[in-house]
Design a protein that fits this description.
five-stranded antiparallel beta sheet, alpha+beta, about 110 residues
């Protein structure tokens, strides 16, 4: 994980701005970055939390995360959508496990 992001995550909320397909931007907080095998994933929550009353959940975004010190934007990382259904299922299962661990630690 990018050391600047890691250090900032430990100290406070770390924000990134997503550029959406329609060209709009969405400021998000980094909730966590985790690995499955050799691949890293990032979990983002919109700064203005979006609550879905039908599912009783908050909206989050999950992407593949790549550190890239030579990226064109100079941010040190880039994100990719998860296109494969099997990969998405593995990521969702791991995220559920992480959330369960957090809930257990808070008890």
């Amino acid at each position: 994980m990018n050391e600047d992001i890691k250090n900032a995550m430990e100290d406070s909320d770390v924000m990134v701005t997503l550029e959406l397909e329609d060209g709009s931007t969405l400021p998000c907080e980094i909730l966590t970055i985790f690995d499955i095998g050799e691949q890293s994933y990032i979990v983002l929550e919109p700064q203005d939390e979006v609550y879905d009353e039908e599912t009783d959940e908050y909206e989050i975004y999950v992407y593949r995360y790549f550190e890239d010190e030579d990226d064109e934007d100079g941010v040190g990382y880039h994100l990719e959508n998860i296109e494969d259904d099997d990969e998405y299922e593995r990521v969702a299962e791991r995220l559920d496990e992480l959330m369960d661990e957090i809930e257990f630690e808070e008890m």
